[in-house]
Amino acid sequence: MHIQIRSLIFVCSFAMALVPNVGTGQENVSPQSGPRRIDGYRGIWFDLGQRSEFGSKYSGGLGTYTAKHHPLAIYVPAVQKTFFVYGGTTEKDKRHLLAMASYYDHQTKHVPKPVVVHDKEGVDDPHDNPSIQIDQNGHLWVFVSGRGRKRPGHIYRSRKPYDIESFEHVASSEFTYPQPWWIDGSEFLFLFTKYTNGRELYWSTSNSDGKSWNEDRKLAGMGGHYQVSNEQNGHVITAFNMHPGGNVDKRTNLYFLQTNDNGKSWTTAQGELVELPLTDPGTAALVHDYRSEGRLVYLKDIGFDADGNPVVLYLTSSSHQPGPNGNPRTLTIARWNGTEWIIREIANTTHNYDMGSLYIEADGTWRVIAPTEPGPQKYGTGGEIAVWVSTDKGATWKKTQTVTTNSSMNHGYVRRPRNAQDDFYGFWADGNPDALSESHLYFINKTGDQVWILPYDMKTSLAMPKALRTRD
């Protein structure tokens, strides 16, 4: 029986001065003297404001936005906790963005009151949401995204290992869409975006102290790009699209690059060495030419198969505007089999920003958890969450679970923790895309037959998330 679910940054050789936010006041950054906590898990609500016949380009509960922020959660066996970050807010129905950090304790099944790592003050835009990484000593690193060339990004480091009580502000610099990867025994490899000529892709490296960074290096500049990346045993992979003429509404094509030496060299899936930055849309890094087909490409996730080969999750569409004119909107995978790229379709969705995550499991199961089902706000961002499974390396897919039904608000942006555990396998937020609303945070188990809602209001320092049964 179903029930209703309600809905490093690169420290440059100079200190970058903090600059005013566009029309939203200024950020004042200082090291934390002690934890500032919020009395519950309250996700940020946002509306981009680009509206057409069927609503906003994207809007709603975007606490786990964007797809280009990685990772958002990491499970640590040493302490049996999943640490996670998200874009929160101060009070109910407020649009005051806070970069939040917390954890789920797998032993006690409790969560603490979440900690404010960085207060964005006048900013309400979840493009400034954080991502997280953990170094070899257990220190948590929170990369708080900037926006464009006006709002800088910030980097924070926990003062104690595996601890959210206090963070020190390490530095500020220009970056958006932070994707930091810790290469064990080596250094950070940080992938990010700078608005130098459109949204161009860069990377930088740092030694283990995370304070001294090498020069920013440009990865790709074809008018702009969005990317998703991942790391396994020092092997970093990235998939990205391109923006013809710098127009993000024309995003198209699928590209792939990888490095096994922390950015010293980059190759295609075939192992062909490329010269950077990429500037030719016809580069050898091209996986599929969607531009010639008139299809748009929205990146969602990327992972490794059992042989260490890349698998990319993305959505193709015929329009950047919401509504039926953009159909079909098709959730798709591209996998490298060691010789060629194989592309297969999973399911159709109702919105370009129906973001989900890809799980490639040890027993050969491939799993996608995403808002593929129409939600109460049919043409808005997100929908109802479903689980799709493949047992033949993505050749065919079957929906095994409809996770949420009869919700009052759309659910979206399901995020996969690194080293995800069965009882905290993905987390997301809900919200009403059509009007300002509260936004709750949820997490799910591996099979998708159990969902928990994080407490929106907390009167005690620790609380147990409420279990919402979805099936007897």
Automatic annotation (TrEMBL):
Domain of life: Bacteria
Pfam family, one: BNR_4
UniProt keyword annotations, A-Z: Signal
Signal peptide: 1-17
InterPro entries per the UniProt record, alphabetical: Sialidase_sf
Name of the molecule in the record: Sialidase domain-containing protein
Species in which this protein is naturally found: Blastopirellula marina
